[in-house]
Amino acid sequence: MTEFVSRFIAIPDLLAASPILAIGLTLTAFFVGNWLFARIGKPLWMPPVLLSAVILSAVIAVLSIDYVRYQEGALWITVLLGPATVALGIPLYQQIHHIRALWLPIVVTLPLAATMAAVYAVVIAWTLGATPEVLASLAPKSVTAPIAIGITEQLGGSVALMMGGLLITGVVATLFVDLLAKWLPVEDERILGFALGLNGHAIGTARAFEISHTAGAFSSLGMGLTGVFTALILPLVFRL
Amino acid sequence: MPMLRGFLILVLFFLLGEALRVLFLLPVSGGVLGMILMTLSLMLRGRVNDDLATASQALISVLVLLIMPGVVGVFFLASQFSGQWLAVAAALLLGTFLSVLTTLLVMKGVLRLSAQRRSND
User: Fold this and answer.
1) Given a cut of 80, is residue B61 above it in pLDDT?
2) What ipTM was assigned to the predicted interfaces of this complex?
3) How confident is the model over B66-70, as a mean pLDDT?
4) Number of compact structural domains in chain B
5) Looking at the partner chain, which of A22, A90, A181 has a beta carbon nearest the beta carbon of B52?
6) Residue A240's pLDDT band (boundaries 50, 70, 90)?
7) Do B45 and B9 share a domain, yes or no?
8) Are A161 and B56 a contacting pair at CB < 8 A?
């Protein structure tokens, strides 16, 4: 009987030898997270990716699966980020006519605001004594995840820390845009949408689509252009 | 099949981006280079092929799934960065507040200026 129990306890470790356990667990957490997100009324401060990740982390910890081993198996999923990043070029192309309509404000705002989004974070963290690895993980905080993962790897940062920063940035950018829109005030939906996408990547874009379709389109555009611009500029700046 | 055909196009653009990165020692990831090449080629063609639209929609709709393993790392590697949490929190909160403020003010200002110039003409 004790032998049976010990065989039972060893199951997760034995199954973890193949990537299929990591794939199964990730998929399960993804669906459970999405279901739970809908059940608790789709709150802005708790994006589904965070919900799913918390569930997944808890399951990995409870089954005492080795984290590095999990990541090796999950490579079957994360390797798809490459083609998924390429796929972002299609919605970007579909939004490009907005640039023609409003090219001057976009051309002036984008380089300045996208650069400052990284500069503010890096300068504040550097002043408070963060290490170069942490700085490299914070720099792409306003960039959409698939692009930001590529940037952080190029800069030598921690992808895990960057992902955490990315989530927090998306959530607080959404709150700050709502707050400052009232204070300043800014009522133009195109400006609000662009600011949401530029600073708050996909999380901001989800909020922008709640404001209006126009805000959503400008947010997608802001997110796409920020991703491309930051990916091109940051590695060059960090080299110096 | 249409989905797989579209997926193949995405994979080919990604491989092309990676090849360019290695060839010219570019600091930008192959995915971003592939995305830029994709946008440029669509601008030249002027339309999106159906297979490509199907495959890209499918991948974009599961982006959350693809980034989840990366997010999970935060909970397991957090102890590595102990002692730097104040710097991280300040950079994220204050930094994001300042960058949202900058974006709104600059864009509002430029829009107002270009509207004024148009009314003066």
Assistant:
1) yes
2) 0.87
3) 84
4) 2
5) A90
6) low
7) yes
8) no
Average pLDDT over residues B13-37: 88
Q: Residue A113 contacts by C-beta under 8 Å, 6 or more apart in sequence?
A: A195, A198, A199, B99, B102, B103, B106, B107
Same domain, B95 and B49: no
Closest CB to A199 among B17, B32, B99: B99
CB A74 within 8 A of CB A26: yes
Could you report the per-residue pLDDT of B70-84, keeping only the tens digit for each?
888 878 877 777 778
Q: Which one-letter DSSP state was computed for residue B78? A: G
With H, G, I as helix, E, B as strand and everything else as coil, classify residue A144: coil
Model pLDDT, residue A239: 66
The string of DSSP codes covering A89-125 is HHHHHHHTHHHHHTHHHHHHHHHHHHHHHHHHHHHHH
Same-domain status, B2 and B45: yes
Range of the domain at B41: 1-61
CA distances from A228 to A88, A162, A170, A200 (A): 10, 17, 18, 15
Asked whether residue B47 is assigned to any structural domain, the reply reads yes
- Cα dihedral A113, A150, B80, B64 sign: positive
